[in-house]
Amino acid sequence: MTRMFRKLLIANRGECACRIAQTAKRLGVRTVAVYSEADDSALHKRVADEALLIGPAPAIDSYLSIERVIDAAVRSNADALHPGYGFLAEDPKLADACARRGIVFVGPSAAAMKAMASKDNAKILAEAAGVPILPWAYVIGSVTSGFSSELTRTIGFPLLLKATAGGGGRGMRVAHGPEELAKTVAEAESEALRAFGNGNLIAERFIPNGRHVEVQVFGDSKGNVVHLFDRECSIQRRYQKIVEEAPATRLLESTRQAMRDAATRLAIAIGYEGAGTVEFLVDPSDQDQSFYFLEMNTRLQVEHPVTELTTGLDLVEWQLRVAAGEGLPLSQSEIWSTGHAIEVRLYAEDPSLGFMPSPGRLGVLEIPTGVIRSDMGYESGDMVPDAYDPMIGKLVSYGSDRQTALATLDDALRTMRVDGIQTNASFLAGVVRQPSFVEGVYDTSFIAQLPLWLTEDVKIPAPREVLVMAALFELHSMRTRQSARSTQERADRFSPWDVRDGWLLNAPAMELLRFTDAFGLVEIKAHPSESGYRLQLSGPAVEASAEVFGSEVRASIDGSSIRGWVIEEENGVLRVSIGGGEYELRKTSAATPDRAQVAVQGDILAAMPGMVLEVFVTEGDTVDRGEPLVALESMKMVYTITASDRCTVRQVAVDQFQQVHKGDKLIAVSQG
Asked: In the annotation, is 299 catalytic?
């Protein structure tokens, strides 16, 4: 057996770096973390054997700096470097730099990465390997009527524009007809240039409501290539995957096998070594399930755990063994896929505000252990910085069949706890409970078809169980405070006159609680009962009781056990965490107005920390409803703030490329 590496530098951060370190340590390989100033207390730094600072917070000066990463590898005497996924993982220049310094790059060769790096070259090579591709063309120069006619003839509308150097959905736009082409090309070109420094585009036929299915491949230095079956990744937002599962659902066996064969042929054609993924688009309108090559990711994928759980293999271990010169651990006939696995990605973002990033300090992060795999990049109390991708981690369930895996995941999302910052946990819970997902009948249009309350800032009442949980917590707090006062102020602390149970002379005992949620004022009447309380709110009355341990509330609601957490802040806000979601209620007296009555101010404030990417207006400008005012970049996403009505710009308080904090004034406007 080839000798395993002595020391591995992990050129990444977050859950990715933590995941790689886990396998390396199991194999007896010492690990070296690199970190930026923003990640000084990060988990990936804490779990490594060594850690080296490589630069300030901006990724371009730290995690994306080949020079600094290589310098860290040399200084730490690492004999191998794992790039993870994201950042420099698919940059052939990093592989070349490793080779020059005698460091083993854990990944494919620079030549293989270069072959698949540009979408146009990848299509050419795929077609040569007999892999089906969609009709496509280069977009060169200005969009003329002749060019539009040519695209109509060769590709047809709608068509999809893609950045040749792109990834992650940036530089991608759909043109539904010739009249949209010039504008759409300009938008895609501008975004591609800003994101990748390269505005080159291709156009290909757009398949509405297609399915995104991918095949995991693995090759070694001896020319062996195998596939590790397929994954479904159709649930995406802005071309970013949110939920993945293995195997893919509703595939004809003939389609499944043809897809695996095509992926293997392509990997063999380019002499591929290590872990890679070949992505395909399945046409739902074709009964034969025609599929077409999208791209090849020359790295380990974020969603690799679903393949690990269904095959029983450790893909990071395979990467390390292949990079060390060993052959593939198993042949194709020795690899089996059993059961079903589903993964969801937990992000620090607020679905009710258009999935706006929500960086900050995590409160409690508690995932059920023993029943679900959780690959996390953070722990309770950790800071989620605003400089990087907002992914906190991944939850992955496994079962003997899809129904079992889904039930396990649903239960984990119900019982997990995450607070301190906004996350997409409640959104994920809503996704996996949608009938179309439960039935396994969905495509890439899934997110667009979700109920409005899951994806937009729609005012809806807090769920009943949230209100009940808040009421039980508040009733407990009231009793605790009253008991403390009685002990201090009265000799007879057992006097019935000191019991706060809402008792009134000649009237049923009752305590009136008032909360304000996103919808407005909610009143709850609490009547003591034999089991605890009878709570009257909208709908039928609820029989409820609870045990409270600090912020943890173990409640019984109409006979069902529910566990949650309630944190009371100084301003009267209660943060209620149930089922992975966090809800905000405000304790309200009769004289306290709800939030809808607060006057609208003329200052437009930053809703998140980030960098001012562009300022579209100057002082004195008059803008109409919907016109852009300022664009912010935060956690790799760009958010353009537009005018909600016709207004005049009174003040521009920021400059382009300025860093801002949440709550900083950006622009001041006046109506009209």
From this structure: yes
